[in-house]
Every structure is written in structure tokens, then in C-alpha cells.
Amino acid sequence: MKKYFFVSTLLILSFSCKYVAKKEAGTLSANPFSYTIHKKITCSNGAIVSAHPLASMVGAAILKQGGNAFDAAIATQLALAVVYPGAGNIGGGGFIVARTAEGTNIAIDYREKAPGKASRDMYLDSAGNAVLDKSQNGHLAAGVPGTVAGLFATLPYAKLPFKQLIQPAIELAQNGFAITKAEAASLNTIQEDLKALNTQANAFQKQTPWKEGDTLLQKDLALTLTRIRDKGKKGFYEGETARLIVEEMKRANGIISLEDLKNYDAAKRNAVVFNYKDYQVISMPLPSSGGIILQQCLKMIEDKNIGAMGFHSAAAIQLMIEAERRSYADRAEYMGDTDFVKVPVKKLTSDAYAKERMKDYIPGKAGNSQQTKAGVIGKESEETTHLSIIDKWGNMVAVTTTLNGGYGSRTVVGGAGFFLNNEMDDFSVKPGVPNMYGALGTEANAIQPGKRMLSSMTPTLVLKNNQPFMVVGTPGGTTIPTSVFQSILNIIEFGLNAEDAVYKPKFHHQWMPDVVYVEKDFSQPVIDSLKAMGYTIEQRGQIGRTELIKIQKGKADSAYTFEAIADKRGDDDADGY
Ligand code: GLY
Q: Are strands 396-402 and 467-473 parallel, antiparallel or unpaired?
């Protein structure tokens, strides 16, 4: 019975959800060895969308047990750390943007920090060349993990005991679960790296190829989660887990110390809050560039009646690209951790500045990133992950969390069973040298001990008439803010339904390189029109995995109606009741 703790909970609760686009008929499967993926759900008591069906199932079970959106956010992140090891994590970091039912905005920063022994030029060789292998792979790539501190910083807003929230994750790690086809394929791609970057055998290594339905057992991770359950934050940042992390560091020239771990804490920030027409947008501030980019992009187009141009018209896309060009130029020049550097946030986000930046925008003619510098102020494997949650009281929670690249540094902490991030690569390792996302940076994002590296994660909430309207976010490195920008406009300007807003092909521009990336199924006539304007267009793999909840009916109509959409681009799953 204990084995299926959350499973049994699901079985005894009645469902009021209408499942659409199920893989198979029947109620939600409750067995971690046989489960289905649900891409869309309409319900009124609580909804959750995450990158994995078992994680969404855990979140929904917690909501049904009386937990609120914060409880579900904690439990789901812990479950993702087990069932989605490529990006779900306790060895990485993230951000939570939330709004309580009473209307308080919350932004919690649990981004990783540079270790105390980190230094500005630590990834340069003796000739001054950047050695990106070191910032991206193995022990030296890891920043001090923030996720567990973030979970405990979220706990005061939750209702249920932490032990109840972590138990499903412990059981999934201890008893195992069946991996999906995508997970099998993904684990097979990292086998060589796992050999090269680890000093001890781990649960993710296998002599024969992984295949769909194989059981992933994570006994060491179960022990680590149990220590966190029993000792709280100290169960990770001190004692046995901390000792195991530091021993792992010592085996391969890593620099995270016991002191770094003990001193780590999450930080409360002031959310980025702004109006776009009739809507209020709430998003993540620095050290994520996401909220500021989103604000800049929306403000640069606000007076241009983009809705009338039409969804995926060349004119609308061009306008959005030009806003993105200007905003990402500012990202590279000015943005970094405000605990360490002065960033002119007020100016960057002022309406007057947005107008000024678009003065040289010419409809029908491509801009040029060599000429568009930052404003005068005074490739990624993109394996981040996002979850969106809302509960029946109206608490809205958006969480984006990451190891940076897929499986982070691909180093597993020996005896502790979890991947360490490779977030150090999100610093500007050397001015002018692009990181794994092609992003450039300057002094503002240079490495300093204890500093947080600049992020693009954009967990976002949208209100209409001060009432919940949308919870949205996505993984995707530097493509995150532009995907959120598109998802919001798709609904509020172009009138798409929530499903189309997520599923329709996406595009991305980030100033440098001066290229517009489009997904493979992007309309060829639109590509041709953009080329005729002077844009360089490149096809690329999928952009992001957007998890979106649209609030169809507000509480004023007696009860909420939520529509939750899980992106078709992965195993993403919508659940709720
Ligand atoms: N590691 C991706 C980001 O934080 O933007």
C-alpha cells in the first residue's frame, strides 16, 4: 500500500475533470509502471501542467488532498527531480513567480551561485582563450545548487506538511517507475558522457540501450530525499548530502565547498509587474533577464496594433523580431545579478525608453544587429523545465527550474544520486564569447564568487481586471522570453485558443547571431516574405515546451474554469480535478 502512496490517494478521490486527447480511454492511470499522457484538461478545482505525467499526477494528488498551488509546486518539483532527471532537479536552481489568492505577488530566486573559489577568468586557458568544455561539462561547471533552498522558501505559503509533499518523490525513486520512449532515447544519448564525467557508477548508466518501459530505480536519490524529509534544508546543505557533494568535487577538481553549501540561501525578489493594455503581467526579475525582456518586448509593440496585423503575418512577426533584437542587445550589455552589479532596470523598463528604442524600426525592412547596439542609458540543449499551477482558491504559481543543459554537467554526486547543474556557463565566461545558447555578455554578467549567473527563465502570470487570466512558462534557454512573448500575444492579440497558442510553430530572435530561428513546420510563404525584407532565416529543432493554463471563467462566475495545455513537443502532461 505504501508503495503507491499517491496512487492510492488518487483512487479514492472523485474526478470532475474532462480529459481530452487521451492516449487511451478510461480514468487517469495510477500506476507508475503504466500511465498515460494527457495534453489538455478542463476543470475547476485545480490544474497543473508539467513536463512529465507522473509529476503532474503527484501535483494533482496533492491538490486533491487539500493542498494549495504552493504545495503542488513543491511536490511536483520533487517528483520531477526523480522522473525527469534531464531537467527536474535538486542539483540545480530556479525561480518561482506566484500570486496568492489575496493578491500578493511573490518572486523567489533560488538560482545557483558561483562557488567561493570561483574567479572571473576561471574558464580561460593560459593564452586567454575560453575553454567552454570546462564551463559546460563535469565538476567545474557546477554552481552551488539552489533548488532545495527554494522549496523551503516556498513552504511558508503551503498548507500541508513537507513530509507529505516529498513522500511521492521518495517512493518513485525507491520503487522506480517506467521510463517513456523519449526518456529512454535521451538517456541513451548521454551514456558516453556519463562514463567520461563520473568517478562512480550511477543509476543512469546501463550496459545495453535503455528502452521504453524500462524501470529507473534511484536508491541513492531516495536516501538523499529521505534526509531532506527528515532534516529539512540541512538534509541537503549540511551533513551527509553536503559531505557527498564535496567528496564528489574533490574526486575531479570541482570547487564547491561545505561552506558554499551551508551559506546558500534563496532570495525573495520584487516581481516584475507591468500593464500591457488591459492586462497585468507578473514575471521574474534579475538575475533572470526573462521578466525584463518580456516587459521590453511587450512595451515596444504596445502602440502598434499588432492584433490587426494577424497571427503569423509577416508584418506581425517582423515587429516582434525587431523588439526582440533591441531587448536582447540590452540583455547582453546591462543585465546581471543586482546583488553584485548596478543594472539600470528603471530606465530599461520605462515606457519612454521602449518608444525611443523603436524609433528606427522600419516596417517591411530587416534591422541589423551590427548597427543595433544596446540602448543608451544613461545552442542549447535547453533542458530547463517549467510547471504552471492554479488552485480553486485562485493561487497562481509558475515555476521554471533547470540544470542548464540536459542532465546539467552530467556529473552525478556519488552516493547521493542526483545530477549537478552546469549553470556556470550562463555567466559570461569571456566578453564576446557566446555561451551554449549563443548569448553574449559583458562585465555585468562576469563571474564573481557568490554571484548568480544571468538567466532567461520567465515564469509568468497574467491578470485581467485584477483576476487570474493565465499561468505560462517554458524551458528553452534564451528562447524562453520570446516563447512566452508569443504565447501571450497569441491569446490576447491574435485570438488563438490556448491549445493553438502553445502548439503553433514558434520563432526566435536574440540580436546575436543576427538570425531568425523558426521551427520546422513554420509557414514557407511567411519565411519567404521575411527573407524578402532582408532577414536571415534558419530552421531549427523545437522551441521550448510551453505549459499554459488559461482561466476561462473567473471566480466571479461562481467557480473557476481552467483550461490547462501541455506542450505537444514532449511528454508534457496536464492534470487536475
Ligand atoms: N540555464 C538557462 C537559463 O537560466 O536561462
A: unpaired
